[in-house]
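ping. complex inputs:
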Amino acid sequence: MCGIVGYTGPRDAGPVLLDGLRRLEYRGYDSAGIALVTDNGDLFVEKRAGKVAVLTDALGGGPPSAGIGLGHTRWATHGRPSDLNAHPHSDCTGRITVIHNGIVENFRELRDELVAGGHTLKSETDTEVVAHLVEDAYKGDLADAVRVALGRLEGAYALVVMHRDEPQRLVGARLNAPLIVGLGDGESFVASDAAAIIAYTKRVIFLADGDVADLTPGTATITDRLGVVVDRPIDIIPWSAEAAEKGGYAHFMLKEIHEQPAALTAAMTGRLRGESVRLEELDGIRTRLSGIDRVELIACGTAYYASLVGAALFQDWLGVPARSTVASEFRYSPPPIDARTLVVAVTQSGETADTIAAARLAGDRGAVVVAVTNTVGSAITRESHASVFLQAGPEVAVAATKTFVTQVATVVMLAADIAHQLGRLPAETERDLVGALRRLPEQAERAIELSVAAEEIADRYASAAGFMYIGRSFGYPAALEGALKIKEISYLHAEGYAAGELKHGPISLLDAEVPLVAIATRSAVYEKLISNLMEGKARDARVLAVATEGDDQIGRLATDVLWVPDTIEPLSTILAVIPLQLFAYYVAVKRGRDVDQPRNLAKSVTVE
Ligand code: F6R
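pong. complex structure:
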């Protein structure tokens, strides 16, 4: 969703904000804007529809010199992307400016009330009402006014507010949308995530819902909405500014695909002990885990596909019913949940609104909730009894890659750990699993090397009318994820299907223009999959297979093959997806798409 950054301190604020916006742009890129209180005491606002580069161009010789300011990059919810609807938004006096991520759900009612009270609102956004509410509440103290205004808002927000007459002060607030405070030496930052400020400071406070942050250069006072001071710990961001740079790759996505071997190593660090899997993060909830009789996984998008692997293994290894449901369906049609239900929320960002709401509902109904997330301090960790981190490092490209493979590896380890605790995982199965996990980073490296053909193959498939991806068992999540990658970044339609379902309808889509992509890695269902592949071939579809090295029949059956190393079936999803990521990447590049920032998308979806 939208990206937010604010600065107050001795540096020239304009460049700090523009740098932050470029790093946050993956959160949303419909429009961008900055507001500064200049060294002359004027309020300067520039905002443009389009990417941060359009804003930078509009600023020509650069923004005026200032020690304080706000910046915003938008993913439109209310009001189409336009210069007018871009943030920051100001009040009637032009002294107060606001940036916002989230949705003010009662904004129509507030807008009518403000207009009736004599205010003039210029944009179509929900955000603008906040500037006018603060204007009405302002009696000389910005933090007090913001707290009063917050009392009127329903919905979700991460907000930062600045007043021209208090030229060293920023006030931030959060409810169901991420916001962090950065503490520098004699300077303060506020941002939606650490990427925006990591180049300046690693010391951060993750604000909790209901917090209001009152910032001046070098001071940060956190209160609740009534003004009572609350104590929040200072955390240190564990990664460097370079981790969020492209490092010589053409795109973040390509860099992150190549980072997967290292990300898998990091995800397993400290978790493989001899021949066992051990997640220390679960130690505080072991008693509760010993009584579980059902597992529900909840997630969205790519994380949902990763969670399917977890569901299969929980069911297999624990011998209890386990399934995965997309969070937006789970929350409005929840299954029976009680204290014996384990709910696993899988979310890279830890900020996905639907996943958080579903986890909260499960927690309220007594379930034991475990988060699997990449983001320390994220909202999902507060909804969970235990959090298991992916340790994958920052992922900047909008299309998830390294967080998918680490999510799969982590849910596999989670299922193994709990099955071991319950005494239901045969020692031999665990030994084989640990051995395969240890080999995985090297095999992921090999899968990348073997995918050297992906670029040339993509060249021949880039003009296809669409794609049908099929897989069975652990190949099915790989098919879903492979199809999603194509959709997201090349804007071609791609369907991910359970291979056995092909003949029940979607086979009619196949022809010479719509290739079949078959996940045909070694498995117990290999022969069945081959039958489905042949069904597609018989309809004149070109067949691109992902197959295991050493398979000497697939070359005769498929038009093209992308090879991966052999592994145990539960981990085959991880290796099979790697060539599909590269294939999608090169198709998108050939089609001239904006790989890292595809249209209409945002990296973390903090609205329902
Ligand atoms: C696809 C992608 C999305 C996310 C989904 C959930 O490449 O990134 O489908 O997986 O929006 O996001 P998280 O994992 O942050 O909850």
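The CA atoms of residues 511 and 538 lie 9 Å apart.
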